[in-house]
Amino acid sequence: MQAEVGGLIECVYLEDGCLAVVNEEGKLNGMEPNRRLGTDIICGSFFICGDTAEGDFASLDEKQVEKYMSQFADVPTFTGEEPELEPRITFIGFDY
């Protein structure tokens, strides 16, 4: 799966239980912007898959395939000036 995205994978959970599997370092490595996903931009190649209760990747059903084929059908034009293209890290603190 790392070969499919060109590096380390990161799983981005989608609202319907599916996952977008993206290159974890796509922005840091200067990969080309590909698609918008929520409030972010995916850089480099990615794929969508399902998720099992055991945490394994699973195939999409026909309805999900149609949904994501439609959602990602249009290739947006990026200027390179989009603020979402800047790498960012979110730190989450936990109180013990």
Give short descriptive properties of this protein.
96 residues, 4-stranded antiparallel β-sheet, 2 helices, 6 strands
Can you offer a commentary on this structure?
The strands form two sheets. The protein has a four-stranded antiparallel sheet. The longest helix is centred in the C-terminal third of the chain and has 10 residues. It contains two helices and six strands. With 96 residues, it is an alpha+beta fold. The model has no long low-confidence stretch (mean pLDDT 93).
Task: Describe the SSE topology.
Blueprint: H1 2-5, E1 9-13, E2 19-23, E3 33-37, E4 40-43, E5 47-51, E6 57-58, H2 62-71
Antiparallel strand pairs: 1-2, 2-5, 3-4, 5-6
